[in-house]
Amino acid sequence: MPNDKVVRLIQPGAFDDQLTEVLRNGARALLAQAVEAEVAGFLAKHAECKTEDGRARVVRHGHLPEREVMTGIGPVAVRQPRIRDRAAAADDPGRIRFSPAILPPYMRRSKSIETLLPILYLKGISTGDFSEALAALLGKDAAGLSPSAIGRLKDGWQDDHSAWAKRDLSARRYVYVWADGIHLQARLEDEKQCILVIIGATPEGRKELVGFTDGARESAHDWRELLLDLKRRGLDVSPELMIADGALGFWKAAEQRCWVHKTANVLNKLPKSQQPKAKRALQEIWMAETKAAAEAAFDAFIENYALKYEKAADCLAKDRDALLAFYNFPAEHWKHLRTTNPIESTFATVRHRTVRAKGCLSNRTALAMVFKLVEGAQKSWRRLDGHNQLPKLILGVKFADGLEVAARATRQPATAAA
pTM to 2 decimals? Predict the structure, then answer.
């Protein structure tokens, strides 16, 4: 057989990819530059510190042993420079210490890998298969994460979630609160259960995960249990508005029904032939520029459908006030307030990354995994539009049709004069 017919096979976990090697070498060089820049900045900050004999007090002192950090392109070798304080002993409380931010001590995995691990677990990969999966993704040198190491990481995630679930909330204040139940594709112990989620908007307009637990989406008892837990931990101040699919009746706050859920509920009570037209009619209600226009569109829908489709009309009519509550808040916030989309969009990545595992996940494990995924996603959440209006709501300023009442009152005479 001619030699040119022989094909060399790549061993599992091995890279034969020049681009990956170039990227890894480039990452190593960039990381070394960033580490050196951080050290140089620290030395410059303490350049004026001198010893008794006039020498520089804070100086370089070689390097720590080389270590590998697991990243999204595989392991990258790094050497961390050491810093020495000449004027203080190692046990001196006043010693100037260098705490690197880029490469913290004992760091072995980048944040992207920390996020990848709970994803793989929720995908149904068992602890025994992690090494093989990571080797296929990141190269053969990534196989150092043994089942016992993964087990310790899972225990750490559960501890992190437990600590977060017990945190003090007495100093927190939320202007808006969204509540919804999210069904994951990961299989919980009770398949009827889902994740009950509460997200809040701070006075600065930032969204935060306030609380979540497992339970039944339609269970008032499970929701009340979650809300009581938040209150016991100090969350006493009611939000200005609570957006949910149903009445929770816990805080003394205005309530806004989710238009997405309500639209689905109404359409389910209509024949398919009527649904496209009915959907457009419902959109005319919540897209109206004023509450009066919305009321007129609301009445038109009831009048058009009550005779032949009484259940659909009743489904809409029973929540009339709660569906139109958003008109009493700043117009910049309407797109955030009409639905529970902040929860749906936030958990979309979690839902897409979770499939039915090979075995049944314990609820405690599933909650810990979801917490780690949301913890990472939370850093990229956008602030609310018009966040400068939130302090006004806290101070009791009233809004009508999306405009501040005082500003609206002065605008109307000007319009009349014109």
Answer: 0.67
